[in-house]
Model the fold of this input.
Amino acid sequence: MKLFVNGKEIEVPAAAMEKRIVEFLREDLDLTGAKNACDIGACGACTILVNDEPSRICIKLVKDFAGQRILTIEGMAAPDGTLHPLQQAFVDCGAIQCGYCTPGMVLTAHAFLLKHPRPTRGEIRAAIFKNLCRCTGYQQIIDAVEQAAPHYQNRK
Amino acid sequence: MSKPEAKCWRNDAHAKVTGRAKFTDDLKFVNVLHAAPAYSGLVHARILSIDTGAAEKVPGVVRVLTAKDVPGVNRFGQIIRDMRIFADDKIRYDGDVVAMVIAETREIAIQAALLVRTNAEPLPAVLDPEAAMLPEAPLVHENHGSNIVNTHVVRRGDVAEGFKQADFILEEKFQTQTIEHAYMETEAAICVPRSTDGVIEVYGSMQHPFSTRRFVAACLGVTLAEIEVIGTPMGGGFGGKDDTAAIVCARTALAAKLLGRPVKLVYRREWSMRESYKRHPYRVHYKMGVTNAGRITAVQCRIVADGGAYCSVTPWVTWRSTVQCCGPYVVEHVQCDTFGVYTNNVVAGAMRGFGSPQMNFVIEQMVEVAAQRAGLSGIEFRRRNLVRQGSVTITGQKLDGHTVAMEQVLNAVLKEIDYETKLKRCAHGRGETDELYGIGLAMSYRGVSLGAEGVDFCAAIINAQADGSILLETGIHENGQGSDSAMSLICAAELGVDLNRIRYRRASTSNIPDSGTTVASRGTIMGGGAVTLAARELKAKIAAAFCKQLGCAADEVRFKDDFIWGRADGARIAFGDAMRQMWQLQQFPFTFATFRAPRVSWDEHTGQGDAYFTWVYGCQAVELTVNKKTGKVKLLNAVAAHDVGRAVNPEMVRGQIYGGMAMSAGYALHEEVKATAGKMTTLNLNTYRIPRSTDVPKMKVILVENPDPVSPTGAKSIGEPANELLAPAIANAIFHATGRRHCSLPIRLGALPEPTACAEGCQ
Ligand code: FES
Ligand code: FES
Done:
């Protein structure tokens, strides 16, 4: 079975098929950006994108993702390390404190902006409501998503 | 690193936004063993034996540890040594750990831990703090002789006389709930025995590397030098990763030491919720004497804080509540009696706010009730009583060493949110539509840093390199709040150099002297103070080395724009060149400095003294609606003004305030740790509900800057003041919306009854 992770094709050994995908990514592929903070699908810290849709991977298995296109936080920046405009906006707006929610938050916002490149602040607020952040009060996260939105308007 | 000219600068933002930042659970070592704790399922019981046999037989289990395996001290505590690495004599609460299983995989450890059996004789549990204080109550700690952990008092003036002067007396009882820090990263540790010299390296999610090292060394029976606690990015703390997080490190280190292999212990959310200490639930009986002219003449209050099964920092938390029991108001006659109490409930300890969120919920409602009785607006009533420049606090401290900004922050909030106009629009239980509008406000002052709570000093090291780069280090721990970045900014500004020269050294307890703990919002003032002093010392060294070359006296040398300057004629040396020359001359641009907090004083018997060396002032207001039919509260808009002394990294300071406000909204409306017969039922983030993006209002922060003379940088603190005001502001706004007061937290509203005549008291 194959997975497509951050643009790379990954051959999954049969033994790993029943593993939880959060563990497979974190342990086998060393993609530790996705965090396991609740283990029951309640917080969003483990969010990755599967075919551009947010998915909470603490409650899913590797085999659930056969042949799917996966984007983790490690795949957001350009290969030369340049931050994606959304990541840059998180940095510039002070949207990062402890950073534990950040990978899931960035990916959730990315999926949202791909579909809604001209959101209101209220729509942004609603879009991230499943991702918990204990540090920021969400204000600067919303600022960051708003600031990055124009970059999505000029795509394709 | 991002550019310093960006709106907000953090040295770790890039790593965190790309997923490269390695938190404890992300670290990898080879040949790692995994650990899992075992609980007893009991709440209060005398331990007869702990049966680990079944767990030991599980294939893959390497060892099961209990109290018998602790070579050093099994008991520890910052104030009273009553906590255990592993439960030994008794089970005192649901979260007591009786054993720890170490296995080849985490799954095996978790499964085997369920097989550990505790044979114990059940004892009656004491779950009500008032009942726990009665003489016939079962004792949680027999050798303590009573369930009262500590008492504090304030005795000022003569309350009987004060009540005589009053035209009316208000009396009310309040109750606050237990809440959880809910840091997104749970407790975690990886401990690695160093093959070269046997030192145990500890990587962990804890906020006090030095106290962790003390506990770990004591538990293992080794010296401090044999333990190295290494700073690791932490996914939130909020005061909650002190003693219980340190035990997690101690147990893991013990396993690593005994087994000679790296051991990893990452807490499941359920373990974290069950075991970690919480914010104290309070019961407060408050009596206030007031004149018709709107002066508070006397306050009498009795505070009972449920400290749960162990002491932790209950005496310190309750001390702050005692010192600040009248809020930012001048009161001549005060009698306060505070009790910290042992029960068999979950342990309570430090949480952001540290004893003030509970009291502010009480005080800021009491002043509004009093205002209404006196026929004044809540604002006018506050103005008639608040502390001003030169006022004397209820503990006899004269506020004259810094700018007393109480009225300044109040005015800033009133103006920004247009309070007086909006107050007139409040529904008071009557409205055309189902949504009842209300606005409310609360304010406080807060003693900065530890005060008479503990030793207060901090060290910093600046080590400039031969190429002009700079290594900076302080004893303050990065808890996710951005303190490393603030320290770097302070250092760059003081030295007049480009921020990119500076790298903040990865903190290690083996590098720098024990600088106490990063609590009580002391990071910026203490760490920043030490950095400033070290930078000044470095400048003095550099000036002495180059003043001749620059053609001026040493005290005329200036540092700015990455150059070292002589007098006005433009003689200058590039900072990098200067460092190279110093290196060649074997003069080391290395300085070590400590900043000591100014002295404070306290008399435990009268509760009088200069409790804190300086104070901060804050005010927050909120607008909301309450749905008449469902009781659902919608927060619309909130404004905060805080005097922070000086904002070193303004956008980051704002971030701290937004976060504090959100947390306080959760305290007001949603959060509550629940238990049935002492067993916790809110064990994960589905049942313990922290605020979501859709729960928090739009927020605006006003930073008021009155640099503090006792702080070398002028900065004071913000972490905690931000977290102690929105809950009472919400309570006041709900009153203005519905006409009903709520004296217990969280505020739960059902469908509202038809409005009666003007409600004024609490119900
Ligand atoms: S860790 Fe997956 S949703 Fe919380
Ligand atoms: S930044 Fe800490 S949880 Fe979001």
Q: What stands out?
A: Helices of chain A lie at 21-28, 85-92, 102-115, 121-127, 139-153. The first strand of chain A starts at residue 2 and ends at 5. Chain A has a mean pLDDT of 96. The radius of gyration of chain A is 15 Å.
